[in-house]
Each structure stands twice: as C-alpha cells, then as structure tokens.
Specification:
WH_DNA-bd_sf, hydrolase, WHD_NrtR, NUDIX hydrolase, Arc Repressor Mutant, subunit A, 9 strands, Nucleoside Triphosphate Pyrophosphohydrolase
C-alpha cells in the first residue's frame, strides 16, 4: 500500500503527459424506429486506471507526429476508421482528470459516412454506442462527448457539416433525417426542402433511389467546395453558452 501511494505521489510530481482522445460520430438506424441516430465507437480499457471501463479511442502523442496525425493514427489502430473529417475540439487538462500523473488530453472529433462506419472494426473491446445513452465513461470522457455534441449541433445551424454524415448521393429526406438526428427535433418536411434547394449547395444527379414501395425519390449530391476541404480547425476558444468552457 505504501509503495503504491509513493508511486502515485512520484507520478504526480512528473511533468504533465500529453494524450489524444477522439469522438467519432456516425449515423446508424435505431433498433426501435429504424430512423438514424448518432452513434460513436468506444474502447474498453484493459489496464488501470479505469480498467474495464469504456473510453474514447486515443493514446499518447509520439515525438515525431503532429496532433492531427496522432489522432488519425490512434483511430486507425483502435477502430480501423480513417475519417475524412477530423477537427480539433478542445484541450482537457483538469488537475484530477487522471489518477497518478497529470494528463492533458487534446480532444478531436470526427464525422464518418455510413460506408466508412460500416468498415469500422468491432470486437469485445471495441463497440459502438448511442451517443445519447452513454454509461459513465473513463476519465472525463462523458464531458468530452457532450462538448463534441454541442459543437456538432452548433455547426449544423450555420454550415454544411451535415453532408459529412451522408454518402456521396442522397435524398432530401435523408438530409432532413441527419438534421433531425443531430438536433434531436422534428423538422417540417416542406419548409426544410424549400430551404435546402434554395441555397444552391446541392444538385440533382438525374438518378433515383430504388427499392422502395412508392415513387422513387430523386438523388442529389453536394456541390459546395467545402466538402473535401475541411481540415484541422483549432477553435480552442469556443465555449458552451451558459455552461462555460470544459475544465482545464
């Protein structure tokens, strides 16, 4: 007991370690309604601290890689996901967020299309969970997920980020379902269609979605240049209105 306590004290006296954690959002159908809802993959910790608890994919930063490269590498190693959209979220550095040595975690968040999410590795220690029904995670990872959700919902109201959760071709109803899933509210189909087609960010492909019982809906694609140009946005100064920034 004494040696363990002494070891913790010794680690506390060391310089803070730097780690990477990443929230990955994807849409998957609800088991009850079949409508898309937000899911994210978690990794079961196999060692202390928090052994056996679920946590965000992540790991240490090596000497020879950038923060974004480290986030991408950790995702590929743990989940086999290679997201096209990867953005820096925030630096989480609470004094007591990790037992033992202090750890500052640079959090990222990623969005993946359905085809990308389908390729994600799953095992006894890597599973997908509904973002709105998470248990208590390791460290402060619930706080990180909540902040990533706020950031996603905020960007949905003024940007074109929703298209990163869709495939290359989609129906207008599928776009609306993305907004409804993320914002967690029902949108008027007619008003949504009118606003969506008025902003000239999408165009009809000339194709139709096949396989339904009714008249097949028209397929569209996103035409904005932003789709393939999203990169590393370091919005470190952002805060959640009414709640203040995450602990640091």
């Amino acid at each position: 007991m004494f040696s363990e306590a002494a070891n913790v004290t010794e680690r506390r006296q060391q310089p803070p370690a730097l780690a990477i954690s990443t929230v990955i959002f994807a849409l998957r159908p609800s088991a009850s309604s079949g409508r898309p809802v937000l899911w994210l993959p978690l990794v079961r910790r196999i060692r202390e601290p928090f052994q056996g608890h679920w946590a965000l994919p992540g790991g240490p930063l090596t000497q020879a890689e950038s923060l974004q490269d480290a986030a991408a590498r950790n995702l590929q190693e743990t989940t086999a996901v290679v997201p096209k959209y990867l953005e820096q979220l925030y630096a989480f550095g609470g004094l007591h967020r990790s037992p033992g040595q202090r750890v500052v975690s640079i959090a990222y968040w990623a969005l993946v299309e359905p085809t990308e999410a389908a390729l994600a590795a799953e095992s006894a220690n890597v599973k997908w969970f509904r973002a709105d029904k998470l248990e208590q995670l390791a460290f402060d990872h619930n706080e990180i997920v909540n902040y990533a959700l706020w950031r996603l919902r905020n960007k949905m109201t003024y940007g074109t980020i929703a298209y990163h959760l869709l495939g290359e071709k989609f129906t207008l109803a599928q776009v609306r379902e993305v907004y409804e899933a993320v914002l967690d509210r029902t949108l008027d189909p007619a008003n949504f269609r009118r606003q969506l087609t008025a902003d000239r960010q999408i165009e009809a492909t000339g194709e139709y979605l096949q396989g339904g019982k009714h008249r097949p809906p028209r397929l569209y694609r996103y035409t904005g240049v932003a789709r393939d140009n999203f990169g590393n946005f370091d919005d470190d100064e952002a805060v959640v209105p009414g709640t203040g920034p995450p602990s640091s």
